[in-house]
Known about the structure:
By secondary structure, the chain is an alpha/beta fold. The chain contains twelve helices and twelve strands. It has a domain at about 5-225: Rossmann fold (3-Layer(aba) Sandwich), CATH 3.40.50.300.
Amino acid sequence: MSLLSVRDLSVKFAMRDNTVTALNQISFDLAKGERLGIVGESGAGKSITGFALMNLLSRPGFIDSGKITFLGEDIVQMPEAKMRNIRGNKMAMIFQDPMVTLNPVLTIGQQMVETLMAHRKLSKAEAKQIAIVKLREVYIPSPEDRLDQYPHELSGGMRQRIVIAIALLLDPQLIIADEPTTALDVTIQADIMELLLELCQSNKVGLILITHDLGVVSQMTERTLVMYAGRIIEAGRTREIINDPQHPYTQGLINALPQQTKPGQRLKQIPGSMPSLTAIPKGCPFSPRCEFVQDHCLIDAPETVQYANVEVACHEVNRLHNDKAEEIKA
C-alpha cells in the first residue's frame, strides 16, 4: 500500500462571478520513505498541492473533486477533529518562511513542548527532553539554551533548522517541504537541504519537496512531477527527467539553468509567463509559449501518455523525439 495516493484531485477558487481551477485532476502516488519533487514556475500549482494534501485550504479555495488517501484513509472526507490529529503527528509541513511558522511571542521550548503534549501523553519534563534530542538531530548548538530563546533571537538558518526539528518532533511518516530554503542566504541553503535529506533517509520519512529549483530536485529526490498551470505535464524518475526531458516546458526549465549557458552568454529563458488562473488557454496550456506548437495544440488538451520512461502530456512528444534522433544521426 502506498503511503499517499492522490487521484483526479481538482482544487478551485470561488470568484465573485465564477470559479477558477487551480489544480486540474492531478494524480500521483508516494511510497513509504520515498522522496518526490514537485517543480514548476510560480503559479504552477505546487504550493496549492501541498496545502490540499494537508487539507489546509481556506475559502475561497476548496477541493472540488478527487481523493487523497493517506495511510489508507481519505483525507478529503475526514472530519476536522480527526485531521488535526494527523497534521503534525503523521504528516508535517515545512513552510517557506520560518518566521511565519514560529510564534514570535513564545519561546522555542514552549512551542516544541506544547506540540508534543498536544499529541502525546507526556509530562512537561519528558517533552522537554524529546525537544532537546530533536534539536541535537538538526545540529543546533547548546539546545538546552535555545529552548529559552525567542525566534527573533536566532539567525534565519537556525530558525529553519528548528522548524525542521518541530516537523520531526512526532516522527511523522510524511513531510511536505514548500520551498524550505527560499528565505535563507544561499551560503546555508545547501546545508539545510543536506540536513533534510539526511534526516528523511535515516528516519525513513516520505518527503514531498516543492521547489522551482531543478538542481535541488536532482540531488534530493527519486521521482519528480513537473507542473504547469495546475496540471502535471511530466512525471517519472528524477534521473530520467533531468537527463532526457520529454516535454518542451521541462526542456525549457533545464535549459534555463545557469550551468547550461557558457560564461559571457545571456541566460536562456522560456518566453512569456505562466497564464493567470482566469485566462488559461484552450488546448495545451503551454501552447502560447511553446516553440513547437501546432494547430491541434491550440484546440485539444493533451492526454498523459507513457513515453520512454516517463509520463508526459504533450501532443508533439513523438515528433520531437524523432527530430532529436535525426539530429543525432546527422
